[in-house]
Amino acid sequence: MRLIQTLSEMQEAADALRRERPPLGLVPTMGALHEGHRSLIRRAADECGEVVVSLFVNPAQFGPGEDYGRYPRTFEADMALCEGEGVAAIYHPSAEAMYPPGFSSRVEVPPLAEGLCGPHRPGHFRGVATVVLKLFAACRPHRAYFGEKDYQQLVIVRRLARDLDLGVEVVGCPTVREPDGLALSSRNAYLTAEERPRALSLIRGLRRAEAMLASGERETVYLVAAAREEMARAGVQPDYAEVVHPGTLAPLDEVEGEARMAVAARVGGTRLIDNIPLRAGP
Length: 282
Prior knowledge:
This protein has 282 residues and is α/β, with parallel strands linked by helices. It contains 9 helices and 9 strands. It has a 6-stranded parallel β-sheet with strand order 1-4-3-2-5-6, sandwiched between helices. A 3-stranded antiparallel β-sheet has the order 7-8-9.
C-alpha cells in the first residue's frame, strides 16, 4: 500500500491503476475510520479492481467555532485498517497542498445545500463540494463511495458529478449502525457516558415516524412531531427534523412513494445527524 501526499504522484498512480486494474474506486474520508468506513472500502473492493482511500480533514467545511481543531485524528490506526483491507493507496495531502496560497475557487450546488444542515452550517457544503471536486481530480476514480448517513452530502455530490460531467459514478452505501441503532460517526467519540444513551433518541424518533407511516399516517407534520417528541424526552434539542424528497431534498407535506426523513441535533456539545428512507405502501 502506497502513502501519497502530492497531487502529481497521486495523479500518476491513479492513471496507472485505471490502466492496469480498472475500474478504480475512491473512498473519500476525513480519517478517524470506523466500521462504516470499512464497509465503504469493502463495497468498493467488491466492485472495483483497486481502491484508493483519501484521508484529509478538510478545513474548508468547518465553520467558526466548529470542531476542526479537535476532530479525531487517528492516522496510524487508519493506515492499519486500510492496509488490512487491501487498499492500493492512501491519499493524504496537507491542507497547504490542497489549498495553496492564492487559492480562491469555490464550488456550490444550490438549492440542494440550502435546506437541512445548510442553514445551521453556513458554507459547509461549499467546502464539501470544493474538496470533493479536487479529490476527484487528484484520484481520478471511476466510482466514488459515500455513506448514506451523510445523505445531503451524497445528494450534493451526485449532482456535482452529473452537472460537471466528471465521469465519476457516485455510489451511496447504507448507514452502518451500532447494535443499539446509533449511526456510526467519528464524532460519537465526543459523547460522554451520560450522553451516549440520549443520542439514541435520534434513531428512536426516526423509527417511530417510520412505524406511524407503516400504520397509515402520511402527513409529514405528524411524523416530524413524533420524532421531535422522542428527542425531547431525552432532553435533546433538534436543529431540524424534516421529511424531504430523496432526490431534490425539497420538504414534503405528505409521503407518497419514496421519501427521506432526516434529523440533526446536539447531544451535549456534540452535533449528530441521522436519516432513514421512508416508503408509503403499497
